[in-house]
Specification:
Its main location: nucleus. It comes from Babesia microti (strain RI). By secondary structure, the protein is of the alpha/beta class. It folds into two domains: 5-121, Rossmann fold (3-Layer(aba) Sandwich), CATH 3.40.50; 134-193, DNA polymerase, domain 1 (Orthogonal Bundle). It is built from ten helices and six strands; from the N terminus they run E-E-E-E-H-H-E-H-E-H-H-H-H-H-H-H. The relative contact order is 0.10.
Length: 206
């Protein structure tokens, strides 16, 4: 299959492979350390290895950077002071236009690879929600944060079109909306303009 996870033979002793439990994989001759179909290439590096062999990662990047449309480096953080080495790896990733992912264990590294593999099979709407899903999320956010009814939230969306419009509406603009009135208008304005704090009540404003 075009979306198979193929692991380079050079990685056969990598401990993270023992944690790949949710996706099928096979070993093969590939340009990256881990390949998903023809489009995704992943390089793996640990900080300790990069400190010992600083030329390894740049050479690997040169050998694979033009082969894939989506490129990742998984960097396993395993130094007590990770920042100097991390800065070096981050600079390489930025210059090469490669996404850098961090992990703190072989299990986490494997999980990142599994996530990349699983998302290949997802439709674009899985990552980019449909307009209806966004609308429903805004309505839910309004009812919970402003403690208003669903019908009130839908009316506000019809009046101001977007959540941004509601957040920037004035007290006078809100109180003129059908079903809102003075008390709800004041609560909505405070909800979007007051510092966050725990509320003693979780009831809808009448």
């Amino acid at each position: 299959m075009d979306d198979n996870l193929v692991i380079s033979h050079k990685q056969k002793d990598n401990p993270l492979i023992n944690h790949l439990r949710h996706v099928p994989y096979e070993f093969g001759e590939v340009k990256a350390d881990f390949c998903i179909g023809q489009s995704i290439g992943i390089l793996f590096i640990s900080q300790k290895f990069h400190r010992l062999s600083p030329n390894y990662l740049p050479n690997r990047i040169c050998s694979f950077k033009d082969k894939f449309s989506k490129k990742f480096i998984i960097c396993q953080v395993d130094l007590q002071d990770p920042f100097p080495v991390l800065e070096s790896i981050q600079l390489l990733a930025i210059k090469s236009h490669i996404t850098l992912l961090l992990s703190w264990s072989p299990a986490e590294s494997a999980k990142l690879i599994e996530i990349c593999r699983i998302y290949v099979l997802k439709p674009s709407t899985y990552i980019n929600p449909s307009p209806s899903t966004i609308y429903e999320s805004v309505i839910e956010a309004l009812t919970k944060s402003c403690k208003i009814s669903t019908s009130n939230a839908k009316m506000l969306m019809e009046r101001f079109n977007t959540l941004h419009g509601i957040m920037n509406a004035t007290y006078d603009e809100l109180r003129k909306c059908p079903g809102i009135g003075d008390k709800k208008a004041e609560f909505i304005v405070n909800a979007f303009n007051s510092p966050f704090k725990l509320s003693e009540s979780d009831t809808v404003v009448d």
